[in-house]
Structures are given as C-alpha cells and as structure tokens.
Amino acid sequence: MSINVLLVEDDIDLASTMVDYFEIESISCDHAANGIHGLSLIENNHYDVILLDINLPRLDGLSVCHKVRSMSNDTPILMLTAKDSLSDKIAGFDAGTDDYLVKPFEMEELVVRIGALSKRRSGQMSTLTVGQLTLNLPQRIACHNDENLKLTPITFKLLKKLMQSYETPVARTKLMHAIWGDEQPDSNSLKVHIHHLRKQFEKYNVKLSIITEPGYGFMLTALNPLPS
Fold first, then answer.
1. pLDDT tens-place string over residues 124-163
2. Which of 54, 108, 112, 154 is deepest in the core (most CB within 10 A)?
C-alpha cells in the first residue's frame, strides 16, 4: 500500500531531494513552498502524513499546524526544523504536531517515521465539531446542545468518520474499513448503523443529514432548511 504525503518546505533544494527519495521508496508526495499553499492543499486533499517545516513564508508551520487541528483534521503531522531546543519542541506539540525531526536528518529515519505515522491518526485531536454537534474522542461521547446522543461503539466510529469528512462523500468501503477493519461483516450491517445514526439525529434535533451517494457511499452535510 502506497503512502501519500504532503511536504511543506521552502528550501527547494531540500524539497527536491526529499521528493526524489520518496519516489524510490514508493511514497507519493505533493509539495508546497509556503504555508498558505500548504494549507490549501490540506483543505482540498487527503494525506496520510503531513511533513511541515516551521520557518515558512506567508504562514509559519506552527500556525499551519494549529489551523489544521482547528479544522478537526487528524492527519498525523511531522515537524521538520533546525530548531532543537526543548521550548521549540513544546511549541510544536502545543500546536498539534505528532512527531518532531531536527535538521539535518537521515532520509532513512524520516521514511521510518513516515511509515509509523501513516498507520494511525493523530493523537492530538480530542474533539470533532460540526455545527452544534461535538464528538469527544477520548470519552467517546457525542453531544448536541448539552444532550448526549445514544450511540453504540459502531455508530460512534461511523459518526467520527463522517464528521472527519464533513461535506465530502465517503466511499462505502472506506467507512466499513474505518469501523470494522479487515474483518468485514455482511453488506447490510452498514445500512443498519446508518439508519440508527439517522434516528439519533431526528431524536435530538441534530441539524445534519446523512446523504446516500448512489453507487458510492455516504456524506454528512448540513440539513437543508425547510421551504417556506
């Protein structure tokens, strides 16, 4: 399985060396030379890992990291920087990074860290929020207007995946893998849990809708207002 990463690095020579090395390692890599471009790519694409330099033009790496986390994006982030003091590392982790690699570094070590990060989602995320609906990840609680939805462990995982991809269709296969991993149930199980989640939305007056994308999957979106 190939890994898809984003490299946000303004040192073009270093970036070119990294992209070439990633190609040898079968790692697909997009590149941005400044923070604004990097943030735009993050908003419009899915990445397994984000490699983020701190000293970036237009928008520094710490700000990019903070904005990514404020969007409820749990893509693992690896900070690349020449700053190696404890305070610099603490600032990076406070902004929401998952790992820290000080320049200069060995490419082999970078690839190993990318591989490890790509197998999980960021542990820096504690909540997901869409509209008035908040998902507390550590406590596994969904709350809407101070009321807790009654979710099973399966519907919690389902809601988490849909909230992470808000306004973006999620393939049925990706939803099922996010919920059950490699041990897939019968094809009707996902429909049952989608139905349960929709009923919870109705019961607690959640202004969100789970739309069926025929032949593809499902999408979480804002509930359309009723016509006047």
1. 556 788 889 998 887 889 999 999 999 888 899 899 889 8
2. 54
Angle between helix 153-164 and 189-203 (nearest 10): 80
Q: What is the DSSP string of 158-176?
A: HHHHHHHTTTS-EEHHHHH
Of 75, 93, 4, 87, the residue nearest 39 (C-alpha): 75
Section 19-28 average pLDDT = 95
Judged by phi (left if over 0) then psi (alpha if -120 to 50, else beta), residue 205 lies in: left
The b/e string for 174-212 (b: 16+ C-beta within 10 A; e otherwise) is ebbebbeeeeeeeeeebeebbebbeebbeebebebebee
- How many CB atoms within 10 Å of residue 107? 14
* Segment 43-60 mean pLDDT: 92
Strands across the sheet containing 99-102? 27-32, 3-8, 49-53, 77-81, 99-102
